[in-house]
Design brief:
The complex is a heterodimer.
Chain A: H1 6-17, H2 19-44, H3 46-50, H4 55-86, H5 88-96, H6 101-142, H7 154-181, H8 184-189, H9 202-221, H10 225-260, H11 262-265, H12 268-310, H13 312-319, E1 324-328, H14 335-350, E2 354-363, H15 366-370, H16 379-382, E3 388-389, E4 397-405, H17 411-423, E5 432-436, H18 437-491, H19 495-534, H20 540-574
Parallel strand pairs in A: 2-3
Antiparallel strand pairs in A: 1-4, 1-5, 2-4
Helix pairs in contact in A: 1-6, 2-4, 2-6, 2-7, 2-18, 4-7, 4-18, 6-7, 6-18, 9-10, 9-19, 10-12, 10-19, 12-18, 12-19, 12-20, 14-17, 18-20, 19-20
Chain B: E1 4-13, E2 22-32, E3 37-41, H1 48-55, E4 63-68, E5 71-72, H2 78-88, E6 89-92, H3 104-114, H4 119-133, H5 148-160, E7 166-170, H6 178-193, E8 197-202, H7 205-209, E9 213-218, E10 221-227, H8 233-248
Parallel strand pairs in B: 3-8, 3-9, 6-7, 7-8
Antiparallel strand pairs in B: 1-2, 1-4, 4-5, 9-10
Helix pairs in contact in B: 3-4, 3-5, 4-5, 5-6
Classes of the chains: A mainly alpha, B alpha/beta.
């Protein structure tokens, strides 16, 4: 045996032979690498940096890159663990044939090297190809001009290669650890041992109910937006824990209860489905919970960012209903004429014509302070010629003055000179400011467009992960169930009944996470609605519509995945 | 009329890419009367499995006919075959073929659930059967908690709960130790005494010596047959061994 050449060739062969399992792993690794490169590319691209209002967006992109990297790590570790479990028998056979563990280590090393090279190189190529497309997409949603040129930032390439190199190195070390822990006989029988029926776990069920209840409780009771933002991640973590516990323990309790009901249980359709699910629930539950959580992440991320994006005009009309606006917080009625006069003076000095001039004193209800200044009607639109709106008992007084300018007039210059002017006015409040709302609008479009982009980007990453987990679940269960279906056909199950029973089992398993994800999204609704208030969006109808549309599209995509993987499952079971 | 009649059965396997076909069964004819316990012996490659698969309606013959209670099995439509098999034939396999996900009770219930029977009826059928097979205490256990003999008796119970005309057993003692084999064969004998027709394919001389009649299959043909008659099991064992020795000697058939 030649020292060099044997293991590389054996590794290549085993990758090829296990193609059905390895291909999705390599594919998702490649796509994850491409996505990491692209988000880093956008973060480092000089063209993007020069766009207006991209400071916030670049911060977001940096954050997004971190999420992509961490998430890729979790996803590839999970998939790798699954693959190793499936290959125990093959490795056991090598072991019996005289391959020592260190030789197997070498085999695994080569496999890892191939996988890492394929994913990193393929991912970078794909990423470079797609980078311009993503750039166009980002500019489109930010309503920004598209920068010329094509670049491949060196750092983006390096970071991506380093991140994926690290991920695969870690996977390799984990595999070595796994290899060292098992005995050859276990390797040979791996994944075949008769599994005990799970016990009903009341403590876990209770824990699940408590954490889930607490998570939903926070969402339903939180009163103001700032608290909502702070408590959001706590609620998310509680619901994730609750989902895991309830899928693990709750489903077992539920299935056992179903089995107790003789009339229900002893039907062709339910008989095999209930017992089959109960049998594998222990392993199944974690996968189902992961699918559920990923689906929820897709739904919440996409629906909120979509809603923000769709509601930009809403927000802008509230925040910036004139081209230039001045706002005096806790002012006095005497301030109003001073600011009015300042506007007229500056307009004359700069030679610009004021249009739609509006000014008023507004007694803001205390509740408006608790929320956000943008979470109320556009005050200026209420003026209608009146100087004072509201009742002094309602709350503190705010002074608003604003006007539109001719399209060719310099709103920035006008706003700046008014801003300087207010400092000499001796107003009753020291907190006042003047906005150039035209610039404000551009910035806002840019940052909300960036949000939407990141939402879609991460949403598709989560979706890919969910698809991958579903695929692996289906094929591994197909191989497990093939024997059972042969037996059932021997005992007298027709092919049609087999199909029916498979459908009943798969669809239960499949749509449980979807329904749970829809519930979670609905449960998060009150909280995300309050968080959207921070961005100035109060249009609940729009948010409902966006959530419903996202859910609908997601359900369609999910159904397609279901059909595709169910077909794969049939093929394995039928043989 | 015999319960099972096999007339001039032929089965040819053709290679997918042309070439010569392999004739697994050449010209097999025999009859099984109601209440018989028939064993069929032969080396691997003699056509045992092919024969059993055709009797089980899992495979179609290339020529000849199989009649069950006078009804030609070739006349049963493809989609009715499963129900036909379920209602007329009970199967016991070498590897038990129990489902890990089901308790012993549910494994036995499986064919009845598939036939759409209600729980009360299934339970009424199960209890006497489980007592007779000595698995009454094990009904709530799972297959992995059972010994080989207990698993095979569970499989027998599953085969019998539909009250089939014939119990087809494929190497039922193949995976059992000698004590468990002995106990299972006693079960077969006592079932047969109560009137159950049994057709068993086996390698084991011991197993065959429990049957009332033994057919010997060689190269796709019935080579010989032995009736137990009034012989003791020991005598039968010797007789079968002798026949096998002669058969492997390569003499031509004299059935």
């Amino acid at each position: 045996m030649r020292k060099f050449g044997f293991y590389p060739r054996l590794a290549a062969r085993s990758l090829r032979l296990n193609g059905k399992f390895y291909l999705p792993y390599l594919l998702s690794g490649t796509v994850a690498a491409a996505m990491l490169y692209d988000i880093l590319f956008l973060n480092m691209n000089r063209g993007v940096a020069q766009l207006k209002g991209t400071n916030a967006v670049q911060g977001l992109l940096g954050f997004g890159a971190m999420v992509v990297a961490l998430f890729s790590f979790a996803l590839l570790c999970y998939t790798n663990g699954f693959l190793m479990k499936r290959r125990q028998k093959e490795l056991g056979l090598y072991n019996i044939l005289g391959m020592e563990k260190r030789h197997m280590g070498r085999l695994l090393l080569w496999e890892t090297v191939y996988a890492a090279l394929l994913c990193a190189v393929g991912g970078l190529l794909l990423g470079v190809l797609l980078s311009k497309l993503f750039l166009l997409l980002l500019c489109a949603v930010m309503q920004a001009e598209i920068p010329f040129g094509f670049e491949v930032p060196r750092d983006a390439v390096l970071y991506t290669a380093a991140a994926f190199g690290g991920i695969f190195l870690l996977n390799y070390l984990l595999n070595l650890l796994r290899l060292n822990r098992v005995k050859p006989i276990e390797l040979l029988h791996g994944g075949e041992t008769g599994e005990r029926e799970p016990k009903t776990k009341w403590v876990l069920t209770l824990l699940g109910l408590v954490t889930m209840g607490a998570g939903y409780g926070i969402s339903l009771t939180v009163s103001d937006p700032v608290n909502a933002l702070m408590l959001f991640f706590l609620a998310v973590i509680l619901v994730i824990i609750g989902t895991y516990c309830l899928f693990t323990a709750g489903s077992i309790a539920l299935l056992k209860a179903l089995r107790k009901n003789k009339k229900y249980y002893y039907r062709t359709r339910h008989f095999t489905a209930v017992s089959g699910m109960l049998h594998r629930m222990k392993r199944n539950a974690a996968g189902l919970a992961a699918i559920c959580i990923l689906s929820t992440m897709v739904l919440v991320t996409v629906s909120t960012t979509l809603c923000l994006y769709m509601g930009v005009n809403d927000i802008l009309n509230r925040m910036y209903c004139r081209d230039v606006q001045t706002y005096v917080n806790r002012g006095a009625p005497e301030d109003l004429p001073k600011v009015k006069a300042l506007y007229e003076r500056k307009a004359a000095e700069l030679g610009v014509e004021m249009k739609d001039f509006a000014a008023l004193c507004f007694y803001a209800p205390a509740a408006d302070y608790a929320n956000n200044r943008t979470d109320v009607d556009p005050y200026l639109e209420r003026a209608n010629g009146a100087d004072v709106v509201g009742d002094p008992n309602d709350g503190p007084l705010r002074v608003y003055v604003g006007c539109n300018l001719a399209p060719d007039a310099d709103a920035g210059l006008f706003a700046a000179s008014v801003e300087v002017g207010t400092r000499d006015l001796d107003l009753s409040s020291s907190w006042s400011f003047t906005d150039d709302c035209r610039a404000g609008r551009t910035d806002f479009w840019a940052s909300l467009g960036g949000f939407f982009f990141i939402g879609l980007f991460l949403g598709s990453l989560f979706l890919m992960a969910a698809v991958l987990i579903i695929y692996y679940k289906q094929i591994s269960e197909g191989y497990e169930d093939a024997r059972s279906f042969v037996i059932m056909q021997q005992v007298g199950m027709t092919e049609a009944e087999v199909k029916d029973s498979v459908r009943s089992q798969i669809s239960l398993v499949f749509f449980l996470p979807l329904v749970a994800a829809a519930c979670h999204t609905a449960g998060a609704f009150p909280m995300t609605k309050k968080i959207l208030l921070l961005f100035g969006l109060s249009n609940t109808g729009l948010f409902l519509l966006c959530s419903a549309a996202t859910l609908l599209i997601f359900a369609v995509v999910y159904y397609c995945i279901y059909r595709l993987t169910a077909r794969e499952y049939y093929r394995i079971v039928k043989r | 009329m015999s319960l099972l009649e096999v007339k001039n059965l032929r089965k040819v396997y053709t290679a997918r890419l042309g070439g010569n076909g392999v004739e697994a069964l050449k010209n097999v004819s025999f009859a099984v009367e109601a209440g018989e316990f028939v064993a069929i012996m032969g080396e691997s490659g003699s056509g045992k499995t092919t024969l059993l698969n055709i009797l089980a309606a899992l495979d179609r013959p290339s020529g000849g006919r199989v009649l069950l209670s006078g009804e030609d099995m070739a006349g049963v439509r493809e989609r009715d075959l499963t129900a036909f098999r379920r209602d007329n034939l009970g199967f016991v396999f070498q590897d038990f073929s129990l489902l890990d996900a089901f308790t012993v009770r549910d494994n036995i219930f499986l064919p009845l659930v598939l036939a759409g029977k209600g729980f009360e009826e299934m339970n009424a059928r199960l209890l006497p059967l489980a007592q007779a097979l000595g698995i009454g205490e094990l009904l709530d256990k799972f297959p992995y908690e059972l010994s080989g003999g207990q698993k095979q008796r569970t499989a027998v119970a599953r085969a019998l709960i539909t009250r089939p005309a014939i119990l087809l057993a494929d190497e039922p003692t193949g995976a059992l130790d000698s004590r468990a084999s002995e106990s299972l064969l006693r079960v077969f004998e006592s079932l047969n005494e109560q009137g159950q027709t049994i057709f068993m394919v086996t390698h084991s001389v011991t197993a065959a010596s429990h049957a009332k009649r033994t057919l010997f299959l060689r190269d796709g043909m019935i080579y010989h047959q032995l009736y137990r008659g009034s012989r003791t099991r020991g005598e039968m064992f010797a007789e079968i061994s002798h026949t096998l020795t002669v058969m492997s000697g390569g003499e031509n058939g004299h059935a």
